[in-house]
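Marked as duplicate of an earlier ticket. Keeping the data here for the record.
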Amino acid sequence: MSRPPIVVRTLPALRGALTGLRARNATTALVPTMGALHDGHLTLVRLAKRRADRVVVSIFVNPAQFAPHEDFASYPRTWKADLAKLAAENVDLVWNPDVKAMYPDGFATSIVTEGPAVVGLEDRFRPHFFGGVTTVVGKLFTQCRPDVALFGAKDFQQLRVVTRMARDLDLGVKVIGAPTVRERDGLAMSSRNVYLSPEQRRAAPMLYRALKETAKRIGAGGRIEPAVAAGAKQVSEAGFALDYFEARHAETLAPIASTKAGPIRILVAARIGSTRLIDNIAV
């Protein structure tokens, strides 16, 4: 039988609730989200339940990772539906701060990362993004002090950046990446998929098909450069405006020219209409 989670919106309430959850040395897992929850988020919650005794989900639409021209104001917010989904999963605690709780008046500190955050992928098109992500995730880690934190591999560069930050700053959190959850036609689940028109939604799975075909060519011994070029052409011909379609080293995200140079991840970001979608796949 499902039970509603505890919902807290202030730091004192969060600290008190966490003290209760950690009774008898219980371990905690954190699933950071911006709400508008879908099955991809719930998969992270289920994995979190297998990795820790108690599960905390944060819901906070972080203004610091949106540029002025991006969709912060219109980003989907579905609080009642989100809470019902988390109750059905028996989540223990929901941390739902407002902007002033996270960024009080006079807030003047940010976390700036290099390494996988400056490799010319998302950072090339959204230079503000990772500063906002690392600052809010760093705050969530210090506020919630989880033993483990779960992130989806769909945002692969973000996963690498957060993993590096937690390690470099000795935050005591084990960051776990979970496989991308997909619709039946292969489209990676995303809160932004609701923006797609019916026609755009029919075209959107081409991202995944192009990734799979490119990975197959490279895995069969094909040269990386022509395989990637063919994949990028597929995406463009499907009606997308391409930001990038690239093969990178799966650990460092550095450019990679040979399968002998290490494990490969193929990453894509493209717009269809006004909606920007990202995806990736291992070779």
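See parent ticket for discussion. The chain has a mean pLDDT of 96.
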